[in-house]
Design a protein that fits this description.
The protein folds into 2 domains: 141 residues, Ribosomal protein L4/L1 (Ribosomal Protein L4, Chain: A); 51 residues, no CATH class. Helix content is 30%, strand content 13%. The chain has 7 helices and 6 strands; from the N terminus they run E-E-H-H-H-E-H-E-H-E-H-E-H. It has a 6-stranded mixed beta sheet with strand order 2-1-3-6-4-5. Helix 2 packs across helix 3.
């Protein structure tokens, strides 16, 4: 498919030919939801822990005899209904990890990219090189591109200058293209990618990697198909 390219000033700068298998498939919302839940579950530490009545401190001696006092029967001070007693059915350390197949993860990312391209939230910029790490510079670029809401800025490789520019922008996050994930793609309203980032995404999730689980990673075609 043809993706329009703009300059940092917001002016049109031609188009590029992007792989249909990455940017023009029918988004699979069920897979996107499944992978998103798995990613959020994998973030959980699972370290919450409470003590049962067998683990709290206190004597196990029965407080008073069972009958004859006219009082409700009581066990030890460790009973759950007593102050400082044990917890019933409380959390214990556990793993929340969910395993997702590689092809399913790749399909989710391609679906998110295709949804962004079809929905008009994807903006492709020719170049995003910034000389000085100034927040003002990146803010002006986003304003020129009409990206006034939460935005995910994707570069071909890790760019420390762009990352430092976005550090003081609360709704802007930067990522290298190989680290794209479904959680970040779905939690931002806008998606800004450089041309090199588009090529890197095609190399990462397009071609044989869209249909084969163990397909090798392709080299990014720098500038191929630019118009």
């Amino acid at each position: 498919m043809q993706l329009p390219v703009v300059m940092r000033s917001g002016e049109a700068d031609g188009t590029i030919e992007a792989e249909d298998s990455v940017f023009d498939i029918e988004p699979n919302t069920h897979v996107m939801h499944q992978v998103l839940l798995a990613q959020l579950a994998n973030r959980r530490a699972g370290t919450a822990s409470t003590k049962t009545r067998g683990e709290v401190r206190g004597s196990t001696v029965k407080l008073f005899r069972q009958k004859g006092l006219g009082r409700a029967r009581q066990g030890s001070v460790r009973a759950p209904h007593r102050r400082h007693g044990g917890i019933v059915f409380g959390p214990k350390p556990r793993k929340y990890t969910q395993r997702i197949a590689k092809m399913v993860r790749r399909l989710a990312i391609r679906s998110a990219l295709s949804a962004a391209a079809r929905g008009g939230s994807l903006v492709v910029v020719r170049d995003l090189s910034i000389e000085e790490p100034k927040t003002r510079v990146l803010r002006e670029i986003l304003q020129h591109l009409n990206l006034n809401r939460s935005t995910l800025v994707v570069t071909a490789a890790a760019d420390e200058t762009v990352k430092r520019c976005a550090a003081n922008l609360p709704e802007v996050k930067t990522l290298p293209a190989p680290y794209l994930n479904i959680a970040d793609l779905t939690s931002h309203r806008g998606l800004l990618m450089t041309v090199d980032a588009v090529r890197q995404a095609e190399a990462q999730w397009g071609g044989e990697r869209a249909t084969r689980r163990r397909a090798p990673l392709r080299a990014a075609a720098g500038g191929a198909g630019d118009a």
